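Box S2. Input/output pair 1.
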Amino acid sequence: MNKKIFNIVLFIFCLIFGVIIVLGYEFVFNVISNFIRINLNIKESLYKPMTYISMGVIYTGFLFYFFVFFILSWFSSMIFNYIVREMRKQQILPANIKTKKKINFLNIYDDIKEIFNILIRLFFEVKQDKDKFSKVLELHLDPNVKKEIEKRNINEIYIGNKTKTGTILFSDLRGFTYVSEFYSPDEVVMILNEYLTESTKIINKYNGRVNKYIGDAILAVFEEAPKYADYMDQDKAILASLDMQVKFQLLLKKWREKINPLLKIGLGIGLSRGQFLAGNIGSENRMEYTVIGDTVNFASRLCSIAKDGEIIISDDIYKTMENLLVVDILEPVEIKGKTGKYNIYSVKTRKMLV
């Protein structure tokens, strides 16, 4: 309703109210005056002042009543209906919600209460969706990436690239292609899921994190330990690798008992340490948070060299861990995409610290 109509309605209301006051003034004055004279034991000189005071109270209350229940209620109803319409346009409220047409504070209160209940329900629905989405993110994203995304605004999802230092772990199943071809899909999925689940638990246990699963391979990152930390990232990566090999043998025993006693499948692991780039890689329509660089490629090549049960490490890792490791020194190898030969080592065990 526009201002012109509002002014007309207000003028008519004031006119009617003024007519009521004028026409009813003498009658109301006589009623109050007689009531005071008959029922109150006061001096005659006080009759008229008391009557005027009573008239003022009555007319003020009458004016207030009409103002609240007509003008103010009508004005509040206009504001409330406007808010409801806008909330419907913005799809905050359902499109089919209706408000009462009577101009009354009680009706507005009922409408507000109903809308408040709707908003409460919507709030819990949104919260449930957020919690569900958060759990999905935990399953599909690196925990650090999840935390970074949650801190950002809706238009700041992109995560910039960073150069980091740490140890890259690549693991890959030996003979899995044969298993995929000659075993049932349920058996293949069971083997893969149990291997990935247990390996991920071990990697997380040693302060690493899985960056991605590549079929039956795992790419994990052990970032450089924070300043003053009492561990080295390469040491944690080696401990995780040793535990993964032990756990894999236990799983293999279980699979042979459950699936086939002749099941042949193994695990090879490669470790490399150095700098790598972590960030968003992909197209404009789809991006993936991953790690790339020479260190990552080197770890992948070492993993491909590793035989069943082997953990192959680079020369850089061996030099910093030499006093803590029992290794087999392997023949220097050529690495695809790199020049020269590189010293590599097969980790047998890690010495206990005394």
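Box S3. Input/output pair 2.
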Amino acid sequence: MTKNAPFRPELQKKIDTLKARRKPITLGSIPFESNLILAPMSSICNAPYRLLMEDLGAGGTVSELISCHGINYKNVRTTEMLKIDPREKNIGIQLFGEGAEAMANAAKVAEEFGPKFIDINMGCPVKKVVGTGAGSSLLKDPTQLPVFFSTIKKAIKLPLSIKIRIGWDHDSINAMEVIHIAKEEGIEFVAVHGRTRAQQYTGQANWNLLESLGEKAPLDIIGNGDLHTSALVKAKMNSTNCQALMLGRGPIRNPFLFLEPFIQEDDNIFFTPEDHFEVVQKLIEYARIYAHNDHILLISIRKHLIWMAAGFNNAGVFRDLIFKTPDLDETIKISEDFFMSLQDQKKRLGDHESFMTSGHG
């Protein structure tokens, strides 16, 4: 496999056929290659994974949330999170923090790494983030947002976007108010997760509200929440008022989720277990560039293997075996044996079920 042709010809042909059916869009002033965008996910959306998702049809990607304080303190690990692979085309860097000046200073540093835009995290519900006044805690008092937005906006030349939830809780659903403020302060577009902070990742995303925002909001809206399968994504693509959709947990389990909604009934295109293993190999190839040693690489890859195997026959046995294997090469061999043993299984089991309901995306 060459650097410019990531996959074997049979798989690459399927990818190219479906990629050609995507329609480029522009959100605010920012062009994307389709209206399906990878959601920012903590400890997942690093450069290798983002690059892989672009290979597999994501119209754009956003980095994992990165602490403004870690950037400003010149923390080595945080600075590494800012790195963008030169092959990435449509990448935004997402920052989180509670102070306008700290966020502005961090945004200036992030800008130097060459993203297409800077994104502000206003949706993370995790206690350690919310407890500092960052993440979805920023939704609690919208009167503070004009200064917060304008301070960051003035510090950078790049476009600025935000990712929010629909509100702090069901008694304070204020997404439209926040979007109007964002519009006044020059924000380009808004990604909205259809849950409140109080919901965390429980219950269902409020797509009725997301559709209303897509229809009436003064900024372009990216709808996010519960789009776990190709059937759900395709149905929403054909009916939504939102200008784009953001996929989080779904592509972790099914790496072809940005492509499958473009399959037509008479195509006879489907992605095999062998295709899945080839994706694993490509992710390892990309991750080697950034991992300091094989042990760190193994830890990173192991979780993706488990997630990608979910729903296939004997996934539980595979998971147990992977966690007992301390060697990277042996792990790859076990993975090859597992996926290649599934060649008669065109589709994983339980694809209708939600995935990773405790977090991400």
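Caption for Box S3: Residues 273-288 form the longest helix (16 residues). The first strand starts at residue 25 and ends at 27.
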